[in-house]
Specification:
single chain, methyltransferase activity, globular, 408 residues, Aspartate Aminotransferase, domain 1, seven-stranded mixed sheet, 2 domains, PyrdxlP-dep_Trfase_major, alpha/beta, three-stranded antiparallel sheet, Aspartate Aminotransferase, domain 2, methyltransferase
Length: 408
């Protein structure tokens, strides 16, 4: 009977120790590897500043800090309560929210909490589909079903690469959902939210916007603020265009919503199991208040420059038009003769780290989803991204159908 590697190692403790030591050395070197030996174009990646990394406090994570501020279940947690207030104040200052909740570890958990707080099992949620960039935590077949929600797909305008706002507004009035989830993992430009928000509020539905990919662009004034446009609740992760450690932010406009959400989190979820993240999040929020506008502006400039440079290299690109404001993302439609996973693995061998997504313009096809936020964070400008575009273009070729494939 063949033995697995694990079985072989179980008989050789010395080999296990050496392998573990090697793994730890690779982990220690990973930061330098990403900064110096990789072209990171993955749209869901970023690095916090050295100050934010240093601010992480293991002592605050020695045990949980569950419950309301200054009335937590665990002893000697007033410092955590003070941090919660400071972080909330900074979130409110950045995004114009009336309240903020930052005790949950990630946006998937945050979305689940919002679903449970503002709906009942069997209620209807309208959300983006996977084919148009809907994230697992938003869409049919994903996290909403853990809350017992029925899910219908929001309409999408593939011609203009955005939510079909008029059709969505009409759909809301017809099917009368309890919740409407906006925002996607694939966003090359902003959606028109006004008609959707108006219809939802007309029938008493709650509107949620998952800003995970564009939070830093919102903070920097380069993407419309959903809360300012009438969205009730904004959820987000904190490590894409917002360059922090992985965590979550929930922010809203109405005090009653905050009370409902806090009651659920404090009674049914383990919040602040890692309160040591809060000082780091506070540092990133403060940095964003000071420098976020310049960073967001450069991200959008770099995306536009890269799209232009790729087109000049005869690479097919789906991106914001010249008269539109870009985000951190552009798409490269790929030929399916090489599967998506094989394509990104092949590019990885050349030091290019990029992800894939469903091509929102073509059913059952995929695209490379290219993000500029990581390399912008490393100080790259438009000229640098023109060179990066050339490096990527050298690894691709166009098919007769106009889609790209890995050149080899």
């Amino acid at each position: 009977m063949p033995t697995t590697q694990d079985n072989n190692q179980a008989d050789n403790p010395v080999s296990i120790a050496k392998d573990n030591d090697a793994l730890l050395r690779l982990c220690a070197a990973r930061l330098d590897t990403l900064k110096n030996d990789r072209i990171v174009l993955y749209a869901g990646a970023n690095l916090p500043s050295e100050a934010a990394i240093a601010a992480y406090s293991p002592a605050l994570s020695a045990y949980p800090a569950m419950g309301p501020r200054f009335a937590k279940e665990q002893p000697d947690t007033d410092l955590v309560s003070k941090l919660e207030i400071a972080v909330e104040n900074e979130v409110n200052a950045l995004f114009g929210s009336q309240w903020a909740e930052t005790r949950l570890a990630n946006c998937t958990t945050a979305n689940l909490a919002v679903f449970h707080a503002f709906s009942q099992p069997g209620d209807l949620l309208l959300a983006p589909t996977a084919a148009h960039g809907g994230h697992l935590s938003q869409r049919r077949g994903g996290t909403p079903e853990l809350a017992g929600l029925k899910v219908m797909d929001l309409p999408y305008d593939a011609r203009h690469d955005r939510l079909d706002a008029a059709a969505a507004a009409e759909m809301i009035l017809t099917v009368k959902p309890r919740l409407v989830m906006l925002g996607r993992s694939v966003m090359i430009k902003a959606d028109d939210l006004a008609p959707v928000v108006a219809s939802a509020h007309q029938i008493g539905a709650k509107v949620i916007f998952d800003a995970s990919h564009v939070l830093g662009l919102i903070a920097g004034g380069m993407f419309p603020n959903p809360l300012a446009l009438g969205v009730d609740i904004m959820t987000s992760s904190t490590y894409k265009t917002f360059p922090g450690r992985p965590h979550s932010i929930i922010a809203g406009r109405h005090a009653d919503d905050r009370r409902l959400l806090s009651r659920l989190i404090e009674s049914r979820m383990i919040a602040n199991c890692d309160a040591g993240c809060l000082p780091s999040l506070l540092v990133t929020l403060l940095e964003t208040r000071r420098h976020g506008a310049g960073y967001a502006r450069q991200i959008c400039r770099n995306t536009a420059a890269m799209a232009e440079a790729l087109r000049a290299q005869d690479v097919s690109v789906i991106a914001a038009q010249a008269h539109e404001t870009a985000t951190h993302q552009l798409l490269i439609p790929m030929d399916s003769s090489m599967p998506a996973k094989a394509t990104i693995t092949a590019l990885e061998r050349h030091g290019i780290l990029v992800g894939t997504c469903a091509d929102p313009r073509a059913l059952n096809e995929f695209a490379l989803r290219v993000g500029t936020q990581f390399m912008t964070r490393q100080g790259k400008n438009e000229a640098d991204f023109a060179a990066i575009a050339q490096s990527l273009a050298q690894r691709l070729e166009k098919t007769a159908a106009g889609r790209m494939r890995y050149r080899g």
